[in-house]
# Entry
Amino acid sequence: MSVENAPVVDVDEAAIPVEKKMYYRFESNDKKEFRVSELAIQQSETLNRLVEAMGYTSEDVENKPAIAIENIDGKTLKLVFQWCEHHKGEAIPVDDGSVPKIVEIPEFDAKLMDIDNGLLFKLIWAADYLNIVQLLNVSCKKVANMAQGKTPAQLRRVYLLPSDEEDEAAKRAAQEAQDPRAREVEEEFEERKRQGGNSFF
Amino acid sequence: MVPVTPSFPLFKLPYLAWSNVLGSMNQLDLIQLSLCCKNMKYAVRSLFRKPNECCIEYEEGQLIIFVSGALSVAVGLQLCDLLHSGPCTMRFHEGRTIKLLGVENFRPKNWFDHIVGVFNVQRISSLSFKIIPSFELIDPRILRNLTEGLEISQLNTSTNVRTYNIGLLLDTFPNIQNLRLSLKPGSLPQIVERKYNSIYFVFSISVNEILSLKAKFISVPVYDYEFNKVLKKWVEGWHPLLTGMKLRLQRWEEPTTVFEGVFDGIDHQGPLITEKGIQFTIKNSKGISATITFNKPTKVVVLAPNQVKTTDVDMLVADHQL
# Structure
C-alpha cells in the first residue's frame, strides 16, 4: 500500500496543536506502509511505548525510515490501524477477571471483522502482540460466539480440538521423533526389570 | 459477504488470546467445551483460579447444584438417575429453560466431579433439603458418595423434612458443623449429642433443649422469661465456655423492659452503650464473665391493632473462647 492510500483521518489543522497532528509511519513485514495518528497509537500499549521510547519529532517521522513491524503482514496491519483510528481517544478497558467477560461487538467492529477465519486468527494474534486490549476483546468475543449452541463433537470440529486419544498418540509420536534413544533406554530398563535386576546402572 | 471457513485453531492462539476467548463464553458453552477433551477441561478450569463454592439443593425429583462465585451455574441431576447410577444426562438451568447435556457413559458421579472440577469448586457451602418424601426412595449415602472429598459447611432442612430424616442426614454427614433446622420443640434427640459450630433454629425450642445443645453459636427465637432461665443456667455453670451472647430484639416495647425481664434475679453490670449495641456483663459461678449485647432489629414490622405483640427475641450465643 502506498503512503497516499494509508488510512488517515481528516483533521482540522487549525484546531489541533502541532504535536497532536503527528502521524507515525509503520511498515508491515510485506513492506506496506501506514500512517497512523498519535492518538490512535495510544490504543496499542506496545506501539505507544515504542514511539515514546523513540522520542521522534515531526521531522524524524518524515525523514527517518518507517517503523518496521516484522511479525504482521499488511492486510492484518491495515485492519489493526483502521480499528485504532476508529476507536482513538476511547478509554482502554481494564480486565477485572470476571467470567463471562461482558463484551459487545460494535457495528463498526463487526463489519471490520467480517473476514475469513484465517485473517481473524492473524488479527487476534496482532492484537495480542501489539497489546490492543479492546481489539483483543472484541475479536476473541467473535471467536467465542462460534461456540454458541454447539455440542462437544461440533466444538471439536470448530476449534480443531483433538480428542484425548489423538492427543496421547501425538504426544507419543512427538516423544519418539524427538529422542529415539529414549525409547531404547526405556525398553532396556523394562527388560532388566523383568530379569529381576535391582539396578539399571 | 466473505464465506466463513468452518474451523478456527483456538489453541494455536497465544495463551492470553485463547483464555480471553474462553472467558467471553457463557456458562453452557463452557461446560460443553470442557467436555471436548481433557486439555480443554484444564483450559476452562484455568479461568477459575479463585476457588468457588457450590450449594446443593435437594428437591423432590432432582438435585440442583449451584456454583457461585465468578460464574453462576445451575445444573441438575434427576433423582431416578441418582438411584440407578447408570449413564445419564445433566440438566443445565438457564432461567426457566432447561437444556439436557449428554456424554457417553457419564454417570451422576462423573457429572458431579466434572462440574466441581471445571469450576474449581473447593467447598459445598450448603446442602439443603426442601422436600424428602421418604428416604426409602433415596439412600442419603448416595448423596454422600456423590459429594465425597468436598467439605460441606452447612446443612439446611425445611419444615417438610421429617425429624427422623434429619437424624439420618446428620448420621450420613457427621462432619457438617453448621445446621439450619426447621424443627418443632421436642424433636432434638439427634443433635444433642454432637458438637457443632453453629445451629440456627427457625422455630423456637424449649429452654431444656437450648441447654442441651453443644454449639459455639446458637440462634433461636426465645421469650424473655426463657432467656432469663438460660442465663440463670449459664450463671450456674451451663456451657462455661460461652463468654458472649448477643440478642436481636424482635419486640416493640422500649428495650429497657426487655432488659428487666431478661436479667430478673441475675447480678449484672450495665447497660453500657457501645457501637455494637447496649451491653451487659454477667459472671458465672466459676468467675467467667460474659457480655450480652442487645441489637435493635434491622427491619421494622408494623403490627395490626388486634395482633398480640410478640415478645420473641433471637438469642445468639457466641464469641466464646475455647
Notes: Chain B touches chain A at residues 1-14, 16-17, 20-27, 29-30, 32-33, 35-40, 47-48, 70-71, 103 (CB under 8 Å). DSSP finds eleven helices and 16 strands in chain B.
